Each structure stands twice: as C-alpha cells, then as structure tokens.
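TICKET #2291
ISSUE: user wants both folds in one file
ATTACHMENT 1:
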Amino acid sequence: MLNLTVRSKLFGGFGLSVAALLAVSWLGYNGLQTASSYFDDYRAAARQSLVISESATTLTEARLAVVRYALSPNDTDGQRAEKLLSDLKASKAQVSQFFAGSPQLAELQALESDVVAYERAFLDFRTSNAAATKGLEGLQKDGAEFRALLTETIETAITEENAAVLAAAARTLQEFLLARVFMERYGLAADPADLTSAKTRYANVEPLLKTVVAAQQSAKLSQLTAKLAVEFEQVRQQAAAVETGVVAQQEALTERIFKIGPAISTAYQTVSNEVIAVQNEVGPKASAGIDSTLSTTLTLASIFTLVMTAIAVFLGMSISRAISAITDCMRAVAAGNLTMKVFGSGRSDEIGEMAAAVEVFQANGIEKERLESEQAAVKGQQEAERRRMMNELADSFERAVGGIVETVSAAAQEMQAAANTLSASAEETAQQSTAVSAASEEAAANVQTVASATEQLAASVNEIGRRAEESSSMSQRAVGDTQTASERIAFLSSASQKIGDVLNMISEIAGQTNLLALNATIEAARAGEAGRGFAVVASEVKALAEQTSRATQEISGQIAEIQSATNASVDAIENVGETIAKLNGIASTIAAAVEEQNAATSEIARNVQQASAGTVEVSSNITGVSRAAEETGAAASQVLGSAGGLAKDAETLKMEVTRFIAQVRAA
C-alpha cells in the first residue's frame, strides 16, 4: 500500500467510506420498510454527502495537480488540472438535482463563481509561466551571443595590446555572467533576492560597456562595441520578460490559487457537515420502527466506522508525514544544504515526484558553486597574465634604454679624459711659448749688442765671432723649441678633433634617446591609466636627452673655437720657425763678415737691423702663441666642466630609468 499514489489512497479511503454507507443503507432499506419516509430523507442526505464528497475529491485532486504543476511545470499536470476543474464546474447540474429545495443549494451555487475564479487563476499562472519560460530561453540565447561578442572583444584587445579595453571587457563579462546566473535562478525559484542581485549586476554592466566604447582605438573594436550595445539591450528585454512572467505567476499562485482553493475546500466541508447533521437528525426518528435492524445496522456501522477511522488515520498520517518530510527537505535546500538525502527519493507516488524536483534544485545549486569556482580561477589567470605582460614591457625597455644610458655614460667619461689631456697640452704649450719668448728676448739683446759693437768692429772681431756662434746655437735651440711647440699644437688639434667626434657620438645617442622617449610616451598613452607612471619617466628621459643635446652643441662650438685657435697657433709657430731660420742665416753671414770686416761694415749694420726686426717679430709671435695656449687651456677647462655635467646627467638618467623599471615591475 506504501507504493500507491496519494490519489489512489484517497480514492480507496473514500471508496471504502461509500461502500460502508451503501452497505448500511442497504441493510436499513431491507429492515426499515415501515420507515420508508425517513429512509428516503436519509438516502437523500446520503446522496448529497456523496455528491459533496465527489466534488471535494475532485477539488483535492485538482489542487494536487496544480501544486505539482507549480513545482514542476509540465503539460500532463497542467492538462489534468484543467480537466478536473472543468469536471468540477460540470457537476453543478448534479448538485442542483440532489440539493433541490435544500438550504445548502444557495451555498453550493455561490461556490461555482469561486471555482471559475480558481480555474482562471490557474490559467493565468500557466500563461505567465509560459512567458517566463520563453523569456528564460531568449535570455540564454541572447546571453550566449553577448558572451561570444565579449570574448571576441577581449581577444582583440589582447592582440592590439589595449589594456583599458581588456580590463573593462573582462569585468563586463564577470558582471554579466553573475547577472545571468541570478536571473535564471529567479526564473526557477522566484526569490526576490536573486532578482535584486541580477538587476544590480546588469546596472554594473552599463558603465563598463561605456568604458569599453571610450577606450577602443581600432575599427574592429568599434564594430564589436556597437554590436555589444545592441545585444545587451536585447538581453535586458529578455530579463524584463522573465521578471514580468515570474511576478505574474507568483501573484496568481500566492494571492489567488493558494487562497481560493482552501476557501472552496472549507465551504465543501461545511456543506458536508450540514448534510451529516441532517443524517444524524433523520436517523433517530427511524429508531422506533427498526430497533432490531438498527441494532444490526449500528453494529455494522460501528465496525465500519472503526475500520474507516483507522484507514482515515492511516491515510492522514502517511500523507501528512510525507508532505512534512518533503517540506523540510525543500527548506533545507533553500537554506543551502546541497548534500542532504532527499526524503521520498525513489517513491512512485506524488511525494517521489516532489523529491525528484528537490533533487533538481540540489543539482542546480551544486552547478552554481562550480561556476563560481571557475570564474574565480579565470580571474586569477587574468591577473597573472597582466603581471607577466608588465614585466615583459619593463625588460624590453631596460634592454632598449639601458644600453644607450651606458653608452652615454662611457662617452662622458671618455670626454672627461680627452678634456684633461687637452688641458695638459695647453699648459705645456704655454710653458714652451714662455721659453721661446725668453729666447727671442735674449736674441734681441744680443743683436743690440752687435749693433753697439759695430763702431768698435775693428777691435772686436773675435768678440763678434763668438757672439755669432752663440746666436747660431740659440737659433738652433729656438728651431727645436718651435718644432716641439708645433708638435704639441698638432696633438692639441688631434685631441680637439677626437673630442668633436665624441661630441657627435653623444649627440647621436641623445637623438636616439629622444626618439625612444617619444616612443615610450606614445606607448604609455596607449596604455591609459596603467601607463601614467611610465609616461612621466619617459618625459623626464626626453628632457634629459634634450639637455644632453644642447650641452653637446655648446661644447661642439667651443671645440670649434679651440680648433680655430690651434690652427692659428700652428701658423704662428711656423712663422717663428721661418724667422729663426732667417736668424740662423744672418748669424752665419755675420760669421763670414768677420773675415771681411772692413769691406762689409755697412752690410753688417744693415743685417743687424734686420736681425733686430726679426727678433721683435719672433717675440710678438711667441706672445700670440702664449695667448692661444691660454685660450686653449680655458677652452679645455670648459670642455672638462661640460663633460663632468654630461657624466652627472648620464648618471641621473641611469637612476631614473632604473627607478622607472622598478615601478613598472611593481605595478
């Protein structure tokens, strides 16, 4: 009997009741011929009770079918509920027949409008349920298309390295998936909290979509964002349809079906009680004529009553306990217990069908938890990928800019060394020019001595010869000194040329650094908020590169002036060498003239005047060489200072690049 359906149990119980009543009625008919009038009244009451019982049974079956349909909508339960309600309305002719002239007729006729309202409420529930189901199907279809578009947008953003679109699209996908889960749960369980969560998530999607539209920078992303906006509007419309359908079906179920059904059952029970009261009133009136039959009838009635009471208690306990147990299971599942064993699983009656529906809810809850775990894992993977891309960007920038910074630093150090060499050369040139100047002054003094001794030429031939030899020796030393000075100036010219080459190389490096800083600024602008710090450092690198370029240009101008002064010094030293060579020739002439002193006195005087003019010219040229050497030393000091500043700038640039790379890797 445990495997029988609730319907079968109820039919069996009521069937036994009807059978017992018929048996008692049959015994009373055979034994109460003399009380036929009373028996007719009693029989009418029995028929009324039967009609009420059948109507109540039909109503109970219809309500069970409605409940089954509400728990698990299907055409079988829906059609059965409609048929039972139609049969209940069709029984009004039978009710009018058996209750004609009865005071209960007005009450039963009033229930007909309630039955019609109950049927209308159920039909509205089916209609709204169909609308909600259609909305859920549309939501799944449009949601899948929207998700595919988002996925394509994310892939395109990764390909185009658009970090802003990638972040906004990933967040949009997360919010949309959560909204979809909450809306589908609301369509199945009608929990207002799920509806509120779904609306909140949908509201979060709108500003994120606007962010994606604002950050897109390509034609393909523009097309995708336009499609996303259209598809999201369709998703919102489907969600609104689901909400409307669920609200309507809940209103029909809770405000009408669950209120009208119990009211009709109560009314049927009231009429049944009134009919039973009539039976109880008619029965004692027939006791006088049918004592013996009544005794038998009462005995049998007592037996049947005990049996039916036991059956009724059994049916009531078995059905109510099962319903209470399955209700507890539903509450536990609603509270989040997804692992408990559902009561009634495997039963073949209506309780088993309800248990199967609860197991479906358990499976849906477990699937939801799995989806949430997967979403958390995907979010972690996206964060790791973002960090990997930032580290790769930092490594690439370090390789591109680090080498240039090292080159600039090395060039600055080399420039300092060259400037030191140039300064030392200029100092040595000044010393040599001072020595040459002293020698030329001494030569001038000797020439004056020769001039004063011209008047005593006859008496001083030997002295003139000695002086001529000294003059020749000093001229030779002066020639050696001028050659040394010429070599020093040539070395100074070569050093200044090398410095110019180094400055050109530094200028080229500064230009390349400026271009790299410009490219870094462009890449930072593409990265948006994520590249703001990168843009600041790139701007500082660009400023340092421009400062380095200006410094090298100033140093190049100064080096050009040094080269010009060096060339002038070379020309002056060559003139000094030529003059000293002439002086040497004059000294030789003086030595020869000693032998012809008497004949060449006038010639000696003239040559002495020329020698005096030559020594003056030599002294003047040596002064120019000394001044050029001083200018060269000053320029070398300026080059050294500029090289030191350039070295400091290169070190600052290196520190800024290191700090920027550390910031990028820490982001």
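ATTACHMENT 2:
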Amino acid sequence: MNSLTQKTVLVGIDWADQTHAWHVQDGQAQTAGLLQQDATAIQDWIQQLRKQYPDSQFAVAIETTKGALISALLGHDDLTLYPINPAAMASYRKAFAHGGGKNDPGDAMLLCQYLKHYIAKLRPLRTESPLTRKLAAMAADRRRLVDQRTAHCNGLKAVLKTYFPEVLKLGAARIYADFIIAFLLKYPNLAVAQKAGATRLRKLFYGIGSRAKAEQRVQLLLDATALSDDSTLIETNSMRVVALVSLIQTYNAQIRIYAAQIAEAVVEHEDYAIFKSLPGASDLTHSRMIAAMGDDRTRYEDAGSLQAATGIAPLTTQSGKQRFVSARWACTKFLRQTFQEFAGLSIAKSKWAAAYYKFQLDKGKSPQMAKRALAYKWQRIIFRCWQDRVPYDEAKYIERLKKTGSPIYQLIKA
C-alpha cells in the first residue's frame, strides 16, 4: 500500500518507552489518545481500530523500525507500517514549531500529516525472515560488544602508561590478546612481575608464543625500572587494571561465542552462497551484509539507493553555480562500516579490487577514501548479484571489464 484510498485510515504513533501517543485520521474525522506499552493493551487498541473503521486498511507512521511495539504491530494484514526518518520528521516539525518545541500528541498528528503527503515516496516496513532477523541482531550485538571492549582497552592502555608501560612493549598485536590478559591478572605491576622471577614468567609466556619471543619478553620485564615508586599510585592502578582486564576477558569470551553462533547460523541462510562468493569476506561479514540487504528485493530501488542508504555514496549539494560534494554522515553507521570493511578485506583477494584501490591511492586519495570508493564499486556488483540471486564470479567480472574497455582492466594487466 503506497497510495491512499477511501478505505485507508492514517495512524501516527509517537513512541516512547512506556506510553505511546497516537493520532488517527479518517478523512476529516480525527481521534487521539495514549497507548500503554503492554501486549494486551496494544492488541485491544488494534481491535478497537478495526471495530471503529471496519474493512479498512491502516497506514501507520512511526519513527522506528525496531522494538516491542513494532513486533506487536507487524504481522497484521490490515496494518502497513511506514518508518519515518527522525531527521526528516525533525525538519518537518520545524515548519510548525519554529521555536523547536515538541509534544507527543502533536508529533503523532504531524506523523499523520507527513504520511498523507509523502506516502508515495515512503517504503513500507516488511517482515524479515526469523533467520535474517537473528543474524542482524547477533551481528549488531557482537559489534556493540567489540566497541565496548575497545573502550575498555583504551582505558587499560591509558592506565598502563602511567605506571607499567612495559606491558605495551611486549609485542602484542592487540592489548586484549590472551597472553596479555593472563599476564596482567597474575602480575598487575612491575614489582610483582620481577618478584616472580624468570622461571615463572618464562612458563607463562612459553604457552602462548615462540620461545624466542618469550625470552625477549622475560628479559624486558626483568631489566625494566619502575616508572614510579609511588606505592599508592601503583596499588590503586593495579586494582584498576585487574578490574579492566577481567572485563576485557569476559568480552573476549562473549565475542567468541557470538562469532561461533553467527558462523553456525549464517550457512543456513538462503542468500549465503551469494555473500560467501565475495572475496575476502568472513562469516561475520556475510552476516552483516545479509542484515544490510535483508530479504525484500524491493527494499532498494537500485544500487544508488543502497549506496545512499548505507552512506557510501557522497552527498552532492548544488546552489546556483556552486556545487559541494561531502561524505554522507546521515546514515546507519553500522552499515557503512560493514561495506567499507569488506572493501578493505577484498583488496588482498580480488585482482581488480587491488588494482582499483592502488589507482585511487595514486590519485592522492587517503586509504579511507580509497576504500570508500572501492566499496561504492562493490555495492553495484553486490546489488546485482543479490537481485539476480547469483553468486559473484571474479573471472566473469574481469572479462566484462575487458569487453567494456574499462581502465581498471588495464591496471590489472600492468
């Protein structure tokens, strides 16, 4: 339902944690009220609408795509949900409240008005398959855990720099490495580590790396001089480090559990073969791409819609003779991050991707800008594979570049 008929009733819902304001418009007749965040209350309200407007279709405008309220409203054949971008609604609201004022009942009414005027341009929310929703939730939750771990790791490094900087010189690729965690839980300061002696330190390090590296680490610790002899500073910072390391250890374990669950689930998805064919992508990346694309093949009108929705396409602003091109910041950051990270992974596994990335660098682009440009190219390919339900074929794509006389093909040959 992307047009209004005589049987269409408009509904605007300004959602909140506990109580939602709603506004219903049927021609000139309008009603409004409040709805409690309760399963029974929501179902009773839907039945009330059906009784008041028999044989009608309800177009519902709401500024979210997730949550208990959305779950309760989806699945009803006579309810079509239209998610409204909060930024778009904020701009629309300013036309009626110049001072920036906001109230929930008024917002519910404005949502109705917005839906009435722009329904043809809005896309209804479709129910994804349980597996797609599961993968999307797990991928997003895992990423949140990774971001939280990063925050704790930054805090850990900051504390270590004040009293125990030798840990940062032990050669760990990541501060959350298992051997760093094991070491700091046992020896949270230099004095304790040196008191343990070479034999115990060597035993700890032997289990997690080469003997040569273990000897280097032991010697570094034994030869070190404490940065500070302030006993209070050392004691309190040691306690803080143990607390942070314990948290990071928990994050490590949970992130691994998520990764294993995602890897187990993603292979069951009907689109797995499409995303598995992409060079350089892991099962974690596969799950994030499946979440980004969804099940509904009408979700994106074309590749350009996908590029804009994920923030990969630049934003062009033109006024008179002036034209500005900037990054598109108003997007779902998780989706933009997904495609940019995949572009980076593909460089080592795809000949044309490597050639194109080098071409962008040679033009003076930064690595980040070059990866974003590569992601832009990849999204056109991914969109077509997804639409046609066929895996990506590197050889066929390179042959196509050759036939069309693409300069990228010449770069591959060089």
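RESOLUTION: both attachments delivered.
EXTRA DETAIL ON ATTACHMENT 2: The two ends are 53 Å apart (CA to CA).
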